[in-house]
Amino acid sequence: MSAPHLRNPGEDALRREWDTVGDNELRLDRADAARVVEALNADLSGLYILFNQLRKHYWTMEGAEVRPVIEFLEDAADRLSEATDEIAIRVHALGGVPVNGPMGIRQHAPMRIEGADVYALRPSIRNDLEAYAILVAQMREHVELAQDVGDETTVEILREHLRTIEEDAHDVEKLLADDTLVRAEE
């Protein structure tokens, strides 16, 4: 049995084509807006990847010290979801189309997507920390880009979410400290 396919509305219903940037009401130069949209779509891709990775780990974690890890993963995924929404809305305001599906995520992915397998607790958390590190470094660069083109609202949005992501990354580092998370075969 094949999956039902969603119909695409007719061409006349198309308001904005994927991977293009149209005019924006923010009066930001179209070329500058396109640079910011590309950067924000890379951030969105990273947020989606990390969100899904955290959710996978939340669903599959087992072990003696798993309860605080699960609670962290659940809360952190919620924070990533909030960041995703705000950044996607900003992409749209800038005249772009926010990353919104697997093809777009892969196209803009700043990091590898963790395999579908289930891993032990420590390696899973290490993968999360690596994803956080990539996202933090990338978002710092994108703050500078937004500053360079004079897009102060994007600067504020990114700084707010960057602060949260950095705090969560620090919490992941604490989870990996030598005196935490029972060491299992890795």
Automatic annotation (TrEMBL):
The keyword NADP does not apply. Keywords: DNA-binding. It comes from the Archaea. InterPro entries: DNA_prot_starvation, DPS_DNA-bd, Ferritin-like, Ferritin-like_SF, Ferritin_DPS_dom. GO terms for molecular function: DNA binding; ferric iron binding. Gene3D superfamilies: 1.20.1260.10. Residues 38-179 form the Ferritin/DPS domain. PANTHER family: GENERAL STRESS PROTEIN 20U. Belongs to the Dps family. This is Non-specific DNA-binding protein Dps / iron-binding ferritin-like antioxidant protein / ferroxidase.
